[in-house]
Amino acid sequence: MDQFVVGTFFVSLLSFVLLHILRRDRVNNKRSMHKGYPLNGAKRSTDGECKSDTSSGTDVIIVGAGVAGSVLAHTLGKDGRRVHVLERDLTEPDRIVGELLQPGGYLKLIELGLEDCVEQIDAQRVQGYALFKDGKNTTLPYPLEKFHADVAGRSFHNGRFIQKIREKAAALPNVRMEQGTVTSLLVDNGTVKGVRYKTKDGQEHKAYAPLTIVCDGCFSNLRRSLCHPKVEVPSCFVGLILENCQLPFANHDGPLLEELQVAPQIPPELYDAFISAINRVNIRTMPYRSMPADPLPTLGALLLGDAFNMRHPLTGGGMTVALSDIVVLRDLLKPLRDLNNAASLCKYLESFYTQGKCFLLAGFL
């Protein structure tokens, strides 16, 4: 256990250097701000940069508006694509995972013009890890010496972060966000043409687009149609919110390397707050899920985010991988003005699965 965890952190350091090398060749695009529309608004634009002949007036359907789906909607919308996002619940998520964005993920957020989404949500800078076991401790700082002073990890309430991204995406006139539960893909002769979904009032609808991107998370009900799912659930993540306590190492994420007895391993600075949280019985759990990326290439559709691949939550790399994949997909689709060209679209999507693998190592950041 000790060797695995320490080894993981050293891989994180090496991965950060790799991500920096890959990043040097990319242009850091500055994004302008737009005034907002309601999240459930149906605003559209017909004078975007990229055109489509589809009668639906939509270029891309995105299933899910978590971190991956919302960032993707904003990114493709900025490129002029007409995007229809379908999300089961557009209220602020309340969950215990997705609170740590690694420095590599923050760099991708900058590249996508969304760094302001970590502002005014009580986000905290994270400079590295602090490890605790058997009364001993140590720190593993991120190798950030060669980066701008603002570059660091960020820790935040996941729901607040998602809402900020949703607001920026919905502010674009060619992005439509709608609350609805996608029940199935619409397939014609092996090609995905769109989705079937239900709105809150129980009405069933169909939406069509030349490209459907599934980003509905680790509990995706569409995954089996687009990949060979090999999901393992080796254990569970358990979290508590500690109040009125001082961290033993400020601005450091601090895993406890202990599998059975937790309380005796808690640092003295956190013990009283830990016991208080236990007594409030406000314990949150989330299953650890591990699933390697094993896509089933399908015309007209693509998997992204945790619906596509998952790694051990201890690495805190899920959002970094998703943001990196979105950068790859954005750059691949830019030259393809007409998404209705099925042959060209298929070729570009195959390239995504190939190039995306180069960024999986960055997920350990």
Shape: globular
User: Which percent range describes the beta-strand content?
Assistant: 15-25%
Q: Report the uncertain regions.
A: 1-54, 358-365
Number of discrete helical segments = 8
How large, in whole angstroms, is the Cα Rg?
21 Å
Strand order of the largest sheet: 8-2-1-12-16
The overall pLDDT, averaged over residues, is 80
> How many strands?
16
Structural class: alpha/beta
Percent of residues in helices comes to: 25-40%
Largest β sheet strand count, sense and barrel closure: 5 strands, parallel
Distance between the termini: 19 Å
Helix and strand pattern: HEHEEHEEEEHEEEEEHEEHEEHH
Task: Walk me through this protein's architecture.
It is a single chain. With 365 residues, the protein is an alpha/beta fold. The chain has 8 helices and 16 strands. The strands form 5 sheets. The protein has a 5-stranded parallel β-sheet with strand order 8-2-1-12-16, covered by helices on one side. A 3-stranded antiparallel β-sheet has the order 3-7-4. A 3-stranded mixed β-sheet has the order 6-5-14, with no helix packed on it. Helix 2 (67-78) packs parallel to helix 4. The chain is globular and about 60 Å long. The two termini are 19 Å apart.
